């Protein structure tokens, strides 16, 4: 049953742009003798191909934000990398995030950039927008002031913003425009890899689709890869090529978006998708019992077993490995049995 | 309680140093109850003796043992300082929290009083009280006066903390759970105000002791009762520095500096311990 | 028909701006609706941020007074509730559920303190055993028990559990109306439906009416009997949930309806591709 189905390489010619291997990152704290270790990222391995959008789904405090922070090399104590590696491949040159810090610093924004959740955190409220572009991108582009300005203006036009916004202050712009600006800021250097943390969560519903379309459009034009995190499954449905489901610090399922939605292999994924309400349907949705695990004291074996309708004795004692199955990977002793249940 | 003390001593070096310093000085001050001579007696010992095996810290020009004078002086000065601090903290907390939580007319009324008192100059007011009271001027009266002058800034600070807490969802929830205003203030808000109280207490104590020294040096207090300020006053009267009786001034000042240092270390480490964020981290949030 | 809650041409204005550019913000404009006392229902107010939905909720709870118009609860004007006794009486029949369960409980206070306080104050219980019994009964309604909650702090429980405890607390005085402002927006997806289902149960088994304030059309459709859609203070559309959300007629409600992405990759990605072509 668990026989590895032949994993069809998506593109043989291109090496993956990101390889994460056996990554473990823990919060290690000590308060007046109370020692705590929170395993926010626990043995995660994944690869991201060129020209794809990879969505990471998970609930609050599942470790999904810690995971992308660790991938970005943007962690601060008490969060520390305990084991494993994060390697990027920018234009054929390998870059180990935690072994080559100076090279990593130089690659920031030029090859690797971020779209953050609260656009106001990026844009300084008392400075005009153009300064943000200058601060973030100018030194990476190697252009003269005039050329830089022209490049920024044409870039903004392409993402549907009037270049005059450069002369305004952030508070003069709407939330949707600000989020467009942060996307513009993250993509002006045409990076090969973009990390996005809940890019649409703080936005009004009416502009959400436009922002998603913008992200997708920019990605298609530049051929870059995006890894993005959100708890909102409908956003994943709309733009992700592949999805990884994170539960309690571990990657429990991964696969092409359509397959994950239509044939979820892990009981947790299946539940997550079945519980989504839709307009036009008032059939009763069953909620999952129990509570999300405490990462400082996670359950033994499979971390989902206390809430899992399919759990057997083996699930309580042995941690299921993430194995290839159908078109993706899944970490469950009873993978694929969920439809029968 | 004992466990908290043990944890603090074991895991916080600042607390350990502060605790040892403060305890040592406290025990030293406590010893004045067993002093061989009454602390207001003068000319019972040979004057102006330098530190020696018999008189460890020397004797004063008034024939007193500096060691035992200091012991009494620290006790009295601390008693004064702590009285001022505790009284003024109670005032600051009451005014700040009520003003911040009730808002409206109460807030306006209390803050008008508060701001008026901020504008009053401390030393002239105290001198005025001294001249009015004259012979009835005792240290508790002085402490009360100082306490009435020393709470205004901190009340404003506490008010602003309460103001932000008032708009938190848990406060609205508490109202709908039928909690009364005192319940909300004491159970819900006080834990967040505690660090402010501790932190300002330290400043206030230093201010109060400084005030006592200033008034004593000027002679505007009961000069027959030994205090740190009183010792400096007498040393000055006898021109101790010119006469080379350095031990009369040096030892009291060193003691006060050590005491401040000890209290300061205690205050910052306890503050860190009772801070809501650190409390939550220890509880496992 | 006797009315549980009546809103009659309710308006709320705020003064905004400084000395020079002072202006008036009409947060809520001419809102009227009535909830029937005999027929408990889930009445949903849908709107984006700035639509006036939260201001409306706060006026119903008596935390804000309207600039003009009247709100009546069981025939009595909410603005006329003044003394502490009247206020407690009102609160025993109208209870709120807050948005963020982690914010609604003080992290340094045990959760049971809120429950016990409610039982003591509103039910007038003095005896500890009686307080425990009343609390436990309310917790049973939400699928919990006092044994699970006693002595716990908010960080020890999940958002979904906390929100259920908040509902249990609101149930203790035996309210007729619960006003829930975005009660599931901060709750994880796997736990969200348990709260939403709970509201249905309260309506059906306890006969409690619920005003559900939300920006999420999908859950609104799932549980509501009636819906109003608010936009910049105005009610743009009102009616039965299936009609208003299934087949909206007003321009704004149609835009809102089409902004909802379905949880289906085929349809959702097609919508995004369509948008992409339009850019």
UniProtKB/TrEMBL annotation, chain B:
Compartment annotation: Cell membrane
Transmembrane segments: 12-35, 78-104, 116-133, 139-158, 192-220, 241-268
Entry-linked CDD domains: TM_PBP2
Presence of the UniProt keyword 4Fe-4S in the record: no
Domain ABC transmembrane type-1 span(s) in chain numbering: 74-267
Pfam family name, one: BPD_transp_1
Keyword check for Transmembrane helix: yes
Membrane topology term: Multi-pass membrane protein
UniProt KW keywords: Membrane, Transmembrane, Transmembrane helix, Transport
Predominant cellular place of this UniProt entry's protein: membrane
GO cellular component terms listed in the entry, alphabetical order: plasma membrane
GO BP annotations, alphabetical order: transmembrane transport
Domain of life: Bacteria
Entries under SUPFAM superfamilies matching the protein: MetI-like (SSF161098)
Signal peptide: none
Similarity comment: family membership: Belongs to the binding-protein-dependent transport system permease family.
Name assigned to this protein: Peptide ABC transporter
Organism from which the protein derives: Devosia riboflavina
TrEMBL record, chain C:
PROSITE patterns with a match to the protein in the record: ABC_TRANSPORTER_1 (PS00211), ABC_TRANSPORTER_2 (PS50893)
Name of the protein: ABC transporter ATP-binding protein
GO molecular function: ATP binding; ATP hydrolysis activity
Cited InterPro entries: AAA+_ATPase, ABC_transporter-like_ATP-bd, ABC_transporter-like_CS, P-loop_NTPase
Keyword Nucleotide-binding tagged: yes
CDD domains with a match to the protein in the record: ABC_NikE_OppD_transporters
Gene3D superfamilies: P-loop containing nucleotide triphosphate hydrolases (3.40.50.300)
Family recorded in the similarity comment: Belongs to the ABC transporter superfamily.
Entry keyword set: ATP-binding, Nucleotide-binding
Highest taxon listed in the record's lineage: Bacteria
Domain ABC transporter: 5-257
């Amino acid at each position: 049953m668990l026989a590895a189905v032949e994993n069809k390489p998506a593109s043989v010619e291109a090496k993956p742009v990101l390889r994460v291997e056996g990554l473990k990152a823990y919060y290690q704290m000590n308060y007046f003798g109370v020692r705590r270790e929170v395993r926010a990222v626990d043995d995660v391995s994944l690869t991201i191909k060129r020209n794809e959008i990879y969505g990471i789904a998970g609930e609050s405090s599942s470790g999904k934000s810690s995971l992308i922070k660790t991938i970005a090399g943007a962690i601060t104590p008490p969060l520390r990398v305990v084991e494993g590696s994060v390697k990027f491949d920018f234009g054929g040159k390998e870059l180990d995030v935690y072994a080559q810090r100076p090279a990593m610093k130089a690659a920031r924004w030029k090859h690797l950039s971020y779209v953050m959740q609260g656009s106001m955190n990026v844009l300084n409220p008392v400075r005009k927008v153009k300064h943000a572009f200058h601060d973030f991108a100018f030194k990476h582009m190697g252009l003269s002031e005039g050329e830089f300005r022209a490049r920024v203006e044409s870039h903004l036009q392409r993402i549907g913003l009037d270049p005059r916004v450069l002369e305004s202050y952030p508070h003069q712009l709407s939330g949707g425009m600000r989020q467009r600006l942060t996307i513009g800021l993250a993509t002006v250097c045409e990076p090969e890899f973009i990390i996005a943390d809940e890019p649409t969560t703080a936005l009004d519903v009416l502009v959400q689709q436009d922002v998603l379309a913008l992200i997708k459009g920019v990605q298609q034009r530049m051929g870059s890869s995006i890894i993005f995190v959100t708890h909102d499954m409908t956003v994943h449905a709309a733009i992700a090529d592949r999805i990884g489901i994170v539960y309690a610090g571990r990657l429990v399922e991964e696969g092409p978006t359509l397959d994950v939605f239509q044939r979820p292999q892990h009981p947790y994924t299946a539940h997550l998708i079945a519980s989504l309400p839709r307009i036009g349907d008032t059939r009763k949705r069953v909620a999952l019992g129990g509570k999300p695990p405490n990462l400082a004291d996670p359950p033994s074996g499979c971390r989902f077993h206390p809430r899992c309708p399919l759990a057997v004795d083996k699930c309580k004692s042995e941690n299921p490995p993430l194995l290839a199955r159908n078109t993706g990977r899944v970490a469950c002793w009873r993978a694929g049995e969920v439809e029968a249940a | 309680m004992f466990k908290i003390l043990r944890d603090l001593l074991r895991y916080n070096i600042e607390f350990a140093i502060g605790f040892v310093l403060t305890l040592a000085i406290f025990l030293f001050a406590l010893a004045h109850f067993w002093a061989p001579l009454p602390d207001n007696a003068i000319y019972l010992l040979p004057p102006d003796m330098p530190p020696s095996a018999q008189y460890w810290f020397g004797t004063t020009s008034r024939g007193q043992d500096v060691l035992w004078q200091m012991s009494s002086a620290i006790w009295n000065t601390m008693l004064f300082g702590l009285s001022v601090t505790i009284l003024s903290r109670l005032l600051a907390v009451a005014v700040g929290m009520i003003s911040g939580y009730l808002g409206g007319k109460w807030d306006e009324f209390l803050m008008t009083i508060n701001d008026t008192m901020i504008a009053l100059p401390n030393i002239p007011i105290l001198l005025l009280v001294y001249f009015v009271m004259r012979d009835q001027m005792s240290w508790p009266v002085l402490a009360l006066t100082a306490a009435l002058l020393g709470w205004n800034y901190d009340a404003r600070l506490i008010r602003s903390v309460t103001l932000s807490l008032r708009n938190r969802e848990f406060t609205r929830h508490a109202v709908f759970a039928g909690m009364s205003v005192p319940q909300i203030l004491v159970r819900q808000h006080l834990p967040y105000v505690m660090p402010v109280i501790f932190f300002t207490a330290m400043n206030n104590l230093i201010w109060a002791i400084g005030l006592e020294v200033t008034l004593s040096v000027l002679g505007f207090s009961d000069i027959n009762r030994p205090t740190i300020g009183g010792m400096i006053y007498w040393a000055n009267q006898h021109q101790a520095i010119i006469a080379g009786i350095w031990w009369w001034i040096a030892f009291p000042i060193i003691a006060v500096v050590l005491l401040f240092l000890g209290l300061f270390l205690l205050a910052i480490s306890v503050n860190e311990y009772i801070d809501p964020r650190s409390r939550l981290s220890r509880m496992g949030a | 028909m006797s009315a549980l809650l009546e809103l009659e041409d309710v308006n709320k204005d705020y003064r905004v701006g400084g000395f020079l550019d002072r202006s008036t913000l009409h947060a809520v404009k001419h809102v009227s609706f009535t909830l029937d006392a005999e027929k408990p229902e889930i009445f949903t107010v849908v709107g984006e941020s700035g639509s006036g939905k939260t201001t409306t909720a706060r006026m119903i709870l008596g935390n804000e007074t309207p600039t003009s118009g009247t709100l009546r609860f069981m025939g009595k004007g909410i603005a006329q509730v003044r003394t502490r006794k009247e206020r407690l009486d009102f609160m025993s029949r109208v209870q709120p559920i807050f948005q963020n369960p982690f914010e609604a409980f003080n992290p340094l206070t045990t959760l049971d303190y809120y429950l016990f306080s409610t039982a003591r104050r509103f039910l007038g219980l003095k005896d500890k055993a009686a307080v425990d019994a009343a609390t436990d009964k309310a917790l049973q309604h939400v699928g919990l028990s006092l044994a699970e909650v006693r002595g716990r702090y908010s960080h020890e429980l999940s958002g979904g559990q906390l929100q259920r405890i908040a509902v249990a607390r609101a149930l203790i005085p035996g309210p007729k109306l619960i006003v829930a402002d975005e009660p599931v927006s901060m709750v994880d997806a796997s736990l969200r439906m348990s709260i939403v289902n709970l509201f249905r149960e309260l309506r059906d088994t306890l006969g409690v009416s619920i005003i559900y304030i939300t920006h999420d059309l999908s859950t609104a459709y799932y549980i509501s009997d009636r819906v109003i859609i608010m936009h910049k203070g105005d009610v743009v559309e009102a009616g039965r949930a299936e009609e208003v959300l299934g087949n909206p007629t007003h321009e704004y409600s149609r835009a809102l309806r089409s902004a909802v992405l379905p949880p289906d990759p085929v349809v959702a990605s097609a919508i995004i591709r369509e948008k992409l072509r339009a850019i």
